[in-house]
Write a structure and sequence with these properties.
Oligomer: single chain
Strand order of the largest sheet: 1-2-3-4-5-6-7-8
Structural class: alpha/beta
Number of helices: 9
Number of domains: 1
Shape: globular
CATH superfamily: Aldolase class I
Number of strands: 8
CATH topology: TIM Barrel
CATH class: Alpha Beta
CATH architecture: Alpha-Beta Barrel
Order of helices and strands: EHHEHEHEHEHEHEHEH
Radius of gyration: 16 Å
């Protein structure tokens, strides 16, 4: 049986972590209290990503932090990650589940209500729904859904929904009030203050909202 999903997902790639390495950024986040990290490296060669993931998964075990890999089910499985997160055009959920084995999470990125319904029907453990707000770091994958769109997706299904895109600490409460199980943050941790300070700010606002 899989453990409960943490409410705050940090999404990392080498660009948003820079000048820190993925391993160092993951370590700082975990030691600061982050308990769910998704590593998103679509272009990195498998052998390089595997080497990095082995170290991040080990850090995760030491800090009780769950670690998933974006798209690369092969790397996720070989590195003993806690799961794989699939983009909308990624592997079918059933095939990813076969690669990952029992007890592992399989999440899915969704941008519309129909995509969310399909992901749940096909057996996703959770959904990351975007874009909820306008993001300063990434081009929107469709129309901005807003809080009303988030509520529609969250109320329709039964699996956890994470709100993504433009999630600043002050928006966490509104996302949860509109049905989100949690929030996913890509670039917000690396805006302005130190990483340690931003982690603390996000976790503080999350605790207030719960």
């Amino acid at each position: 049986m899989k453990p409960p999903l943490p409410r705050l997902m940090a999404i990392l790639d080498h660009n948003n972590a820079s000048p820190l390495s993925l391993i160092e950024a993951s370590r700082i986040m975990m030691e600061g209290g982050i308990r769910f990290i998704q590593i998103r490296e679509k272009e990195m060669p498998a052998v390089d990503l595997f080497s990095i993931m082995e170290k991040i998964v080990q850090l995760g075990h030491l800090n009780q932090c769950r670690v998933v890999v974006n798209e690369r089910a092969d790397v996720a499985s070989c590195s003993h990650s806690d799961g794989v997160h699939l983009p909308q055009n990624g592997l079918p959920i059933s095939q990813a589940r076969e690669v990952m084995g029992e007890g592992k999470w399989v999440g899915k990125s969704c941008h519309t209500l129909d995509e969310a319904r399909k992901a749940e029907k096909e057996g996703a453990d959770y959904i990351v729904f975007s874009p909820v707000f306008l993001s300063q770091s990434k081009q929107a994958q469709g129309p901005i859904a807003g809080l009303d769109g988030l509520k529609m997706v969250s109320d329709t299904g039964t699996i956890p929904v994470y709100a993504l895109s433009g999630i600043t600490p002050d928006k966490i409460s509104d996302c949860l009030k509109h049905g989100a199980y949690g929030v996913a943050v890509f670039s917000g941790f690396f805006a302005e203050d130190s990483l340690e300070e931003k982690v603390a700010e996000y976790l503080f606002e999350l605790q207030l909202a719960l």
